[in-house]
Predict the 3D structure of the following.
Amino acid sequence: MSEDLFAQALRCLRCEDPGEKCRLSEAVFTAVQHGRLRPVADASPVVAVTRPGRPARPRLVAPRGLPKRKLGSAQGRATLLHALAHIEFNAINLAWDAVYRFRGLPPDFYRDWARVAREEALHFALLCDCLQRLGYAYGDFDAHDGLWEMACKTAHDPLVRMALVPRVLEARGLDVTPAIVEKLRKTGDACAVAALEVILRDEIGHVRIGSRWFRYLCAQRGLDPDTTFVELLQAYMAGQVRRPFHYAARLQAGFNDEEMRQLEVLAACRS
């Protein structure tokens, strides 16, 4: 393994086999933790990655083309778990893309996102195990590509990426996961409940990492983070946010009272 962290991040990003991508993510994270990999100042320039490495399946369709998930049957639970596994798989790619794409940031930025990539790989593996227990595998159902599409829209600026991917799209998971856990608990699916409890715990940390680097970049540019966050929501997502908000989780993840007030205002405009 070369000492160039950017080259190894690109290798992880381009890997098409899900199992190998998870193994590589673990290996690269471990190398970063032990100081064997570092961001190299004279690394090769960033190349456009419009399509990350992923298997031929699942087939990607528009969100409206996906069936509604009814948790009363094994297949219904499997469609839900498959959708969540697809989110986690995309999240691995998003984390390595952040490591690879955004240059000139402090070493802690790269360590943080390598950790996120490794944890997203663990989440993906947990959900695949639950799918297998139900008789299914990743790729058995269609999925959509919304998370990676946002990665492409924010590829030009780490500040925009930190604001909109961890602090909007991933933060939505903090809001909805507790209710999903309760529904799954009622079905007796202990594997899924245990997996989602781990995922919720870790995702609070991931959103907190996004909050940390969003505020760092705002401070570097002399921008007010509260105002900037709302401006970016309006510019890129037409201010579309939805209740309910999991206040405790969001506050742990780095949101403040003013941001929560602004989110409530935006949500009220949509209702």
Observations:
- Residues 72-270 form a domain with the Ferritin fold (CATH 1.20.1260).
- The longest helix spans residues 190-221.
